[in-house]
Amino acid sequence: MVAPSGEDQIFNSAGVLIPQSENTGLIPLKDQLPPSGDSDAEDGAINVDQSDSLSMTFTDDLYDPETGELVTLSDLEAFVILRSGIVLVLIYHLNLSWKEARQHFM
C-alpha cells in the first residue's frame, strides 16, 4: 500500500494534478511480476553433502500478506525439504500468495 507524500504528487493520465484532498488514502498496487528466486542447488539433486550450505536469493523482499510482516528465514525453512537418501527438494512457487503456499505445502 502506498499513499502520496505531498500535495503535488499525483496526476491523472492526462497530466492534470489531482489534489491530495481527492485521494482516497492508501492505494493497493497490483505488481505485474511476482518475485522470482534462485538457489545454488538443483531441485531433486541427489547425493548432496549434508555439510554443504544452501543459498536462496529472491528479487524482492517477501512479505506475509496476512500480517504485512517481512517473511523470516524460519518462515522460508518450511519450504526446503530434505528427504531420506539426501535428496534436496526446493519448493518456492512464488506465484502463489504466502497463504496459498502455506496451505498447499504444509
Tell me about this structure.
The protein has a two-stranded antiparallel sheet. It has a two-stranded antiparallel sheet with strand order 3-4. It is built from 2 helices and 4 strands; from the N terminus they run ββαββα. 1% of the residues are buried. Helices cover 12% and strands 13% of the residues. The chain folds into 2 domains: 1-30, no CATH class; 32-106, no CATH class. By secondary structure, it is of the alpha+beta class.
Give me the strand/helix succession: EEHEEH
Count of all domains: 2
What class would the helix/strand composition place it in?
alpha+beta
User: What coarse outline follows from CA principal-axis ratios?
Assistant: elongated
Brief characterization of the structure:
The chain is an alpha+beta fold and 106 residues long. The chain contains two helices and four strands; from the N terminus they run E-E-H-E-E-H.
Topology:
Blueprint: E1 37-39, E2 56-58, H1 73-77, E3 80-83, E4 87-90, H2 98-105
Which descriptors apply to this entry?
106 residues; alpha+beta; two-stranded antiparallel ribbon; 2 helices; elongated
